[in-house]
TrEMBL record:
Domain HTH tetR-type as annotated: residue spans: 21-81
Any Pfam family hit: TetR_N
Full protein name: TetR family transcriptional regulator
InterPro entries membership: Homeodomain-like_sf, HTH-type_TetR-like_transc_reg, HTH_TetR, Tet_transcr_reg_TetR-rel_C_sf, TetR_C_16
Keyword presence, DNA-binding: yes
Keywords, comma-separated and alphabetical: DNA-binding
Residue stretches of biased makeup (Polar residues): 1-10
Source taxonomy: Bacteria, Bacillati, Actinomycetota, Actinomycetes, Mycobacteriales
Portion annotated as DNA-binding: 44-63
Region spans: Disordered: 1-24
Organism: Mycolicibacterium komossense
SUPFAM superfamilies registered for this protein in UniProt: Homeodomain-like, Tetracyclin repressor-like, C-terminal domain
């Protein structure tokens, strides 16, 4: 007597779960939306998984941790890339124009990053991105003495401006006036130009 053939049984799904497994792209989109809306500390892996119609274990399997997922979707590299390229005599003004571009994307991303600076991975990322896109290329271009020190001070000016605008409610209006931006552009430009030679 022939034994009945057994057919493989499909894995059961939880009610309401879509047939297709959650993809990394769906998780990225959910994470980007929630981090921008709530910040790092108020967004959980479960929140991301729920919005992506997935499971927290799937999120961790794809990305390793909430911090790693955060740094994949919240990055200032595109905004910082090429920031210090251009003619040195007008670079101070150009840097400000790029940082404070009309769509405000750099400010939004920086504000989201600042909300997670208590995380070592996030601090390390911001330090590395600043060195890669601002400090190192500037130090290689600046003429005159103390190029590396001046490059670091310019990076500090950029970081300070972004932090002040993003974190303090009463400062953005004051800092974004035309006169304030003129002062700031001149201060950055003074470090780019370097010290004037002493008169003989």
């Amino acid at each position: 007597m022939d034994r009945p053939t057994t057919n493989p049984v499909a894995t059961s799904r939880k009610p309401g779960r879509p047939r297709s497994a959650a993809t990394p792209d769906a998780i990225r989109r959910a994470a980007e939306s929630l981090f921008a809306e709530r910040g790092f500390s108020h967004t959980s892996v479960r929140d991301i998984a729920t919005l992506a119609c997935s499971d927290p274990a799937v999120v961790i399997r794809h990305f390793g941790s909430k911090e790693k997922l955060f740094l994949e979707v919240v990055t200032v590299d595109p905004q910082f890339r090429g920031l210090v390229k251009g003619p040195l005599p007008t670079l101070g003004r150009q840097i400000l124009q790029r940082l404070l571009e009309a769509d405000g994307s750099t400010l939004r991303l920086h504000a989201t990053l600042l909300g997670a600076l208590d995380r070592t991975e996030v601090r390390r990322y911001l330090e590395q991105s600043t060195a890669q896109h601002i400090t190192d290329p500037l130090a290689a271009r600046l003429l005159g003495p103390d190029a590396e020190v001046r490059a670091r001070l310019i990076a500090a000016q950029i970081g300070g401006l972004l932090m002040s605008i993003c974190l303090f409610d009463d400062t953005p209006t004051q800092l974004l006036t035309a006169k304030a931006l003129d002062y700031y552009a001149d201060a950055i430009q003074a470090l780019i130009d370097g010290p004037n030679p002493a008169p003989e």
